[in-house]
Design brief:
Blueprint (H helix, E strand, L loop, with lengths): L2 H15 L8 E5 L5 H9 L4 E4 L2 H10 L6 E4 L8 H7 L2 E5 L2 H11 L6 E7 L15 H10 L3 E8 L7 H19 L7 E3 L6 H6 L4 E4 L1 H4 L4
Parallel strand pairs: 1-2, 1-8, 2-3, 3-4, 4-5, 5-6, 6-7
Helix pairs in contact: 4-5
Length: about 220
């Protein structure tokens, strides 16, 4: 079985293993550094959501593949001077971690497009080199997003530090699950818990992830 089909099958298998409803975990294909031809192939197998980290590379793919009507997620660090193009070209932002960027995205999205789906990125591991707000500040940023009319708060995203131990992976993801569940009580639009990548998505599904972001597992190692 080829990697894309195998990964989709694995998600279904893990849903069953951990008592999750079938179809409760969606797949975001992380296509950074991959050519458009591989995205076309993935789309032909039923994948419609793709994540990109790098602005210029992403814009070229969005334009070239426009007729496929794919859903594009920006998952990289957002530079202030790129907020206009990002706000107007993407369907989702998964890496929001600053109030200033939220305000700019709202301004540039305008009211002629549907509201921009937003996940607040949480820095679970406290790494200084990694983007994301500390978990105890996520609620404040979520509340700001809710007040901005051209943004739609959808949930939380995290990229924990690499951890080979399965139980420690689960422990990290459990922290985000607790915050996600707490936020849902006051923010009914929240439905996305974006956590889990190629090396740890089993632990993420075990701990309630609703969206896994797979790159290497789908497309192989990047050059």
């Amino acid at each position: 079985m080829e990697p894309i089909a195998s990964s989709i099958s694995k998600i279904y298998e893990l849903e069953a293993k951990y008592g999750r409803p079938k179809g409760s975990v969606s797949l975001l294909a992380v296509s950074k550094k991959k050519p458009p031809e591989e995205i076309v192939k993935a789309a032909s197998l039923g994948i419609s959501h793709f994540g990109e980290n790098y602005f210029q590379e992403a814009m070229e793919k969005i334009e070239r593949l426009r007729e496929l009507n794919l859903k594009w997620h920006f998952i990289g660090s957002i530079q202030s001077n790129k907020t206009r193009e990002i706000a107007q070209s993407f369907d989702w932002i998964q890496s929001l971690d600053r109030e200033k960027i939220a305000v700019k995205l709202n301004e540039h999205r305008g009211n002629t497009l549907s509201a921009l789906n937003v996940c607040v990125q949480v820095n679970l591991s406290g790494e200084e080199t990694k983007s994301g707000v500390p978990i105890n500040q996520a609620r404040e940023l979520c509340e700001l997003v809710e007040e901005l009319p051209n943004l739609k708060l959808r949930g939380l995203m995290a990229i924990p530090a690499p951890q080979p131990d399965f139980q420690l992976q689960r422990k990290n993801f459990r922290k985000l699950l607790r915050e996600f569940n707490a936020l849902k009580t006051n923010h009914p639009s929240i439905d996305i818990l974006s956590m889990g990548m190629s090396d740890d998505f089993e632990a993420a599904i075990a701990e309630g992830s609703t969206m896994v972001r797979l790159g290497t597992a789908l497309f192989g190692a990047r050059l």
